[in-house]
TrEMBL record:
Disordered: annotated segments: 414-434
Lineage: Bacteria, Bacillati, Actinomycetota, Actinomycetes, Micromonosporales
Domain of life according to the entry: Bacteria
InterPro entries the UniProt entry points to: Bact_solute-bd_prot1, SBP
Organism listed in the record: Micromonospora parva
Pfam families: SBP_bac_8 (PF13416)
Signal peptide (UniProt feature, chain positions): 1-24
Keyword Signal (UniProt): yes
Alphabetical UniProt keywords: Signal
Protein's name according to its UniProt entry: ABC transporter substrate-binding protein
Length: 434
């Protein structure tokens, strides 16, 4: 998930966030005397593990699993995890690490159990090669995390709003509307002209990130940092291309300006305030959670403009501060197994990083009833094995936040595109230097 990963993966859920903060001080895995041990799992967004926990506890009655952070966005989750790791207490027994932050956490591998010391090397074939390698330290001697999902990208849309605007509603016909991003913009202009009372898309930042990761994956293989960890925000053509295309989207008046992951964003889902949203596989769970049961069958999934892309994904790690490392390692192995990844996909939509899971009929034949029985196994899974990873540098999250903040200021009319670009570059350099 992720994510989103996002990667800022899901709107803030107040109850979940409160629970995360209240329990932060005590950490996970406290001793339970003669009773079952408690394993705390820290996640963000929607990982889809609830049923898997029940299955695991039924098979392991000595274990009780408590999850923290479901629904919490990455901007809240990551600083807490960083604080807990630095303090040596407070983190869960199993913690999710989003792909954009993995390099940063791998810089301090001593915070985590080396999974290679606990039989994880035998599991290498259970993951796409690049996903496995992403969890390794640079010298290949430590594995800090096992992969969860990858983020194949599509475009989710509201059929009812498309119908109201006089546009096609069937997914193949919708996909043909926008083979390129300029075509997507042209479709959006037709939608806006129809005056449906809704915007064409939710927010420019989500679309910007989609275009960036898509373009980078098909060209350089990196975004804000190159593979030598040099900041290239102002010299990587992928970043500038994504910026310019997003500025065209903003200039065309297509965005609803609903700040991603905010309360107004969640309300916009519920009130049918926008018609399309860039949709990595994990986003389907977010949409369903935010839009609610009343919108079932009103959503569908089409191809994304451009040529695919990969947005999101995480790893599960076991902090050394866990009091139950052996049990936590076994749980992490279970959740990231082919069975675990299939279960998570069925529950919330994150696309497996396991080749065995991707080949399973449960994935290849999967349909999502909420999204008008869209063949999600085909839409997201058919090209999953050929997804190209995008390298994320040591301060990726901080840099990304500054660039997307600059996109947001243009979207809100506070800066011109030229001023916004200057801010993006200047503030990204400051963030990278901290």
């Amino acid at each position: 998930m992720a994510v989103f990963p996002r990667r800022r993966l899901a709107a803030v859920a107040l109850a979940a966030t409160t629970a995360l903060l209240v329990t932060a001080g005590c950490g996970g895995g406290d001793e339970q005397g003669d009773g079952p041990i408690t394993l705390t799992v820290d996640v963000f967004g929607q990982f889809g593990y609830e049923q898997l926990y029940q299955e695991y506890m039924a098979a392991n009655p000595n274990v009780k699993i408590v999850e923290r952070g479901t629904g919490t966005n990455l901007d809240e989750y990551s600083p807490k995890l960083t604080q807990w790791l630095a303090a040596g207490r407070g983190a869960g027994d199993v913690v999710a690490i989003e792909e954009g932050l993995l390099v940063e956490y791998k810089a301090n591998p001593g915070n985590f159990v080396n999974l290679l010391d606990h039989g994880a090397a035998d599991l290498k074939g259970n993951f796409l090669e690049w996903k496995w390698n992403a969890g390794l330290t640079a010298d290949g001697k430590q594995l800090i995390g096992l992969g969860t999902d990858v983020g194949g990208i599509a475009m989710c849309y509201r059929k009812d709003l498309f119908s109201k605007a006089g546009l096609p509603t069937e997914r193949d016909a919708v996909s043909k509307l926008w083979p390129t991003w300029p075509d997507y913009i042209a479709t959006g202009e037709k939608f806006v002209a129809a005056k449906t009372g809704a915007s064409f898309l939710d927010a420019a930042t989500n679309t910007f990130n989609t275009i960036l990761l898509q373009t980078a994956g098909n060209t350089t293989g990196y975004s804000y940092y190159d593979t030598s960890d040099k900041l290239v925000v102002d010299s990587n053509p992928s970043v500038r291309q994504a910026w310019d295309t997003t500025m065209d989207i903003i200039d065309s008046g297509l965005s609803g300006k609903y700040g991603s992951w905010s309360e107004e964003w969640v309300s916009a889902f519920k009130q049918s305030k926008f018609a399309t949203i860039a949709c990595p596989a994990w986003m389907t769970g977010v949409i369903e959670a935010n839009a609610g049961t009343g919108a079932q069958g009103k959503w569908d999934i089409a191809q994304v403009p451009g040529n695919g892309g990969n947005w999101g994904g995480s790893h599960l790690a076991v902090p050394k501060q866990s009091k139950h490392q052996a049990e936590a390692i076994e749980l992490a192995k279970f959740l990231t197994s082919a069975k675990g990844q299939i279960g998570a996909f069925k529950a919330k939509g994150p696309l497996p990083s396991s080749p065995q899971a991707l080949d399973d009929p449960a994935i290849t034949g999967a349909k999502n009833a909420y999204f008008s029985d869209a063949p999600v196994g085909t839409i997201f899974g058919s090209g999953a094995k050929s997804l190209k990873p995008v390298y994320m540098g040591p301060k990726n999250q901080a840099v990304r936040t500054e660039v997307e903040n600059a996109v947001r200021t243009v979207e809100l009319g506070q800066r011109s595109p030229a001023q916004g670009w200057t801010d993006a570059v200047t503030n990204a350099k400051k963030a990278a230097a901290k």
